[in-house]
């Protein structure tokens, strides 16, 4: 069983990401742990049937370096371009998501030890660093990923995350 299947209302602080300054950048980071091999988490991150359950449906040929992603939990969402910058199964995925607010560079690193997988998710934020809105959103979607990996029910109430967690993602001073 996956230990990360609780809702943010159960563990609002233990599951938060962090906003950090590193090498002149502002990064939003989340760390999650799974009691499954990295290949299973990788499948949840890349298999279109599984991604549709937690973030969205993608179409296209990823071997061409890009796909279109339609968010499945956002009514009326248009397909947005996603560029695949680096893909090293089952340990590293770097993409740039095209959004109406500009590009979102995202990195997912997986490491496995003893059948247990650590996920490190990083979103490089652009100024003006809207971490108060973006942080709760990724928290929500990563909880949905957790549910897919665990084979459990997927959270569907974004209001449990935002605005409740908006103040949990302050940008540190330079």
Automatic annotation (TrEMBL):
- Matches recorded under InterPro entries: ASHA1/2-like_C, START-like_dom_sf
- A Pfam family this protein belongs to? AHSA1
Which residue numbers delimit the Activator of Hsp90 ATPase homologue 1/2-like C-terminal domain? Answer: 35-149
Top-level division of the source organism's lineage: Bacteria
N-terminal signal peptide: none
Q: Which SUPFAM superfamilies match?
A: Bet v1-like
What family is it from? Belongs to the AHA1 family.
Q: What is this protein called?
A: Uncharacterized conserved protein YndB, AHSA1/START domain
């Amino acid at each position: 069983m996956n230990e990360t299947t609780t809702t943010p209302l159960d563990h609002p602080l233990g599951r938060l990401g962090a906003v950090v300054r590193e090498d002149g950048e502002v990064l939003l980071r989340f760390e999650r742990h799974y009691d499954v091999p990295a290949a299973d988490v990788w499948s949840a991150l890349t298999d279109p049937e599984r991604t549709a359950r937690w973030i969205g449906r993608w179409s296209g040929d990823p071997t061409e370096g890009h796909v279109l992603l339609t968010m499945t939990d956002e009514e009326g969402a248009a397909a947005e371009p996603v560029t695949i910058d680096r893909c090293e199964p089952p340990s590293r995925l770097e993409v740039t998501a095209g959004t109406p607010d500009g590009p979102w560079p995202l990195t997912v690193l997986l490491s496995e030890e003893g059948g247990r997988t650590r996920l490190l998710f990083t979103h490089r934020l652009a100024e003006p660093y809207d971490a108060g809105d973006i942080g709760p959103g990724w928290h929500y979607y990563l909880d949905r990923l957790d549910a897919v990996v665990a084979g459990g029910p997927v959270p569907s109430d974004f209001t449990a995350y935002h605005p409740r967690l908006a103040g949990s993602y302050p940008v540190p001073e330079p």
